[in-house]
Design brief:
single chain, alpha/beta, Rossmann fold, 5-stranded parallel β-sheet, 5 strands, 49% helix
Length: 213
Amino acid sequence: MKSKTASPARKSPNVVALTGGIGSGKSCVARLFEKWGASVVDADQLARAAVAPGTAGLQALTEKFGQQILEEDGQLDREKLGTIVFTDPASRKFVESVIHPVVRTMWLEKLELLKRNPMLDLIVYVVPLFFESGMKYPEVKKVLLVTSPEEARMQRVTERDGLSPEAVRARMKAQLSDDEKKRRSDYVIENDSTFGELEARVRLLFSQLARRS
């Protein structure tokens, strides 16, 4: 009687978090990872879904801050809300208490679905406030930090979002310093040169992270 040969255990994809200060270039780095085959989940996109019209999240924010935070079509005006929360720590904590648990649940549900793909080697979770939120991420194996000179970050955000320099500084001040984030991260991607140089740095890191043990 022939014995059955045991099937090799299916390897799980590597799960990493990608973070960095506002305007550091996280989205650019995430697109490169995705281009080379990683599956990317963006916490900001999940957060938008968590406060879409008709959700309990948007209702809680409206009850707290009033109709002033809504656009004419009922969508959340993120710029107006940002003006409030980035100048008032108590308001910021309230918003985080509403949004973060919902985003956490959505991410874990998405992660379980992605893990079912036997061809997937790398999952990248983009979390701008990975350290600031104070939440635990036991499913994440490594943390990648994107950094960029402050002047370049200021220029990117003012051009991208139309914010004043003062508003950008307020957002930067609400986040941990790059020095502190570097101490807590496993890898640091310096976005301080040309796009070609950034692409080369990310490509090297991708080749390491996409290897499954």
